[in-house]
Every structure is written in C-alpha cells, then in structure tokens.
Amino acid sequence: MIRKSGVEIREWFTCGIIAVILVSVFLTAGTSPVEAAMKSPPPEKIKAIIIGDRVVDIAYHLGVVPAAMSVRGSMWPMSKQIKTSSQILGCPNCVIKNENIVPDAIKQFGIKTIIIEKSTPYCIYKPQVKPEKVADLLTGLNVKIEYVDFSQGIESAIRQTAKLVNREAKASALIKKYNKALTGARKNLPLEKSGRTVVIFSGTYQPSTGKAMLRVEAPGGYSDRFLLEPLGYTNIGDSFRRGKAKPAKGHYPVKKTRKGMVLDPLLKANPDVIIVTGDAFAVQKALADYGKSHPQLSEVKAIKNMAVFALPLYVDSGVIEYPAVLKKWKVALSR
Questions:
Q1: What are the chain's domains?
Q2: Above 80 in pLDDT, residue 13?
C-alpha cells in the first residue's frame, strides 16, 4: 500500500472537489425554464386566484397564470419564476390560518373565480393541510368556487384545469407531451434495488454574511417516493439524525460549530452517492472546508468516485416537470 503525506491527501481532495463541481455543473446544464419559456408566448394573466401548486403548474403549461396564487413558494423552485407574473399570497396553510388574506386579495384584484386543488395528501410534510378549507373563508363573497380533483390522475387534472381556464384546446397536446416525456423518463428503470446508498444535502447560502446552512433529507420524503425508489437507491439520511429528533419538514439540520459544518456522520454513512439540492455552492463550500481538517473525507465512496451531483428538487408541485426531473436523476444515478 502506498502511503500519502497530509499535503498530498489535501491536494488530492481539492482536485477531487473541483472534479465533482465540474460534474455537477455538467449534469445541471441544459435548457432552463426561462429559456424554454422564451420559445413560446408569455402566459396570459387571468382574473382568478388559484389555491394549490399543482393546479398553478398545469395552468402555466396551458399558457395561463392567475392574478394571485397560494402555493408552497419556499419549496417549489419554479414558483420563483411564476411569481414575477402572479402574486403569491402564502402557502395554503398560511392563508387558512390568516382568514383575511384571500378575501382581501379578492377585493384587491377584483376576482370572481377561485380555483382550488384537491389532493390527498396535499403535502406529505403537513398532511393536515387541505387547500379546500379555503372555501370556508369565502362565505358571503360574490365569487365562484371551482375545484380540480387529482384523485383521477394527472390527465384528468389537466382536462379539468384546461376547462376552468378556457384552454380546453390545449389539453390534449399537453397530455400527449407529458405522457411521452414520462415514458421516456421511465425507460430502462431498474427492476430491483441496486443496494446503493445516497445522502441528499439541501444547501442555503447567505451572500450578505457568507454563511452557509445545510440540511439532510430524511428517508420517506419526496425524493424517496418519486425518485430514489424508482431508481433503486436507498436514502440513508437518518445518519444525520441526532438522538430521537424528528425531521423538520422532512429534513435534519446539519450541526454547525465555529469551525464549520459537522460532517462526521457522512464519514460513517459512507454513501455511494451525494446529491445536492438548493444552493449547490453552500454544500460544495462545506465539503471543501471540512475536507481541509478531515482528509479522510476523500475516502467517502461518493467523493472518491466523483459521484456528487447537483440535481433539481422535486416536491410534487411541478407535476408537469416531473418527467424531466426523473430523467435527470436517472442520468446521474445510472452510472
């Protein structure tokens, strides 16, 4: 066995991190939602309020955005794009708790139609939240309340939404496009578990302070249900669980000290793959900083094999984007 000096290990680790960053950038390259939108006319704003991410997403792909919407803005990446045209009132949980938000928006925007999503569950992190409860706050107001029921699947939801936003002529084309993309994404998926493991980091970086925060996705969340299970991978995020602590919104916070992020659990977990969602730089910086004082990080399988990938988050909001997200995860994990 050839031994390496501490300097050589640090140099090797630094080169490894650079290679990992290049791989991450390569895999996240491609047509962005903004670039894709430039190929078609901008969506038309309609005088309606939509309660629910999934309905907003379908409406957007039919060429329509509401005057205002209630969506999980902090979780759904695409909401940052749509909110430039549509006012976010808060998530459904917020607008149900604050009974004046939607009635005030109805008056402000002169709304006559409210379109509400019916999904079970609406959010697996907060299963008690039901967007249809917003209707209870609208008694006595001169508005028409409509519902989009997802219990019959995406195709039915697309047709329901298209009818409510007067885009029925576009429904069949969107369904065809979605089904074609989903069939392609599911092609050659593994028939059984691979035995390979993954840790999913979510990064947040604060430019004003230069500080980074990390969370680790707990097993059983959206990534497991929609991405890892179809791809035959096992989420071992519980390695970052402290004691009997329960995950907050499906994640465990990564402990931070004056010396930086405590990534010791990563050494013990030794995952085959590390996936990065959110701000990739925050995670890359944390790994690089930790590696300076813990050269053994370079022996973690994911880093040693350059299997660290920045991939899009999926929380079952952008239902039309799901096939593209699944395909990108498949490309990364089918190595």
A1: 6-30+191-333 (3.40.50.1980), 34-186 (3.40.50.1980)
A2: no
Per the CB < 8 A criterion, the answer to whether 191 and 229 are in contact is no
Tell me which DSSP letter residue 73 carries: T
Whether the pLDDT of residue 11 is over 80: the answer is no
- Report the pLDDT value the prediction gives residue 208, as an integer from 0 to 100: 81
Helix (H) or strand (E) segment spanning residue 251: strand 251-253
Q: Could you give the residue ranges of the DSSP H alpha helices within 294-321?
A: 301-304
pTM for the complete prediction? 0.85
- DSSP three-state, residue 155: helix
Structure tokens at 199: 């840790």
Q: Is 133 exposed, middle or buried (0-12, 13-18, 19+ CB in 10 A)?
A: middle
Paired tokens of 145: 């309340």
Length, in residues, of the chain: 335
pLDDT (tens digit per residue) in 299-317 = 999 999 999 999 999 999 9
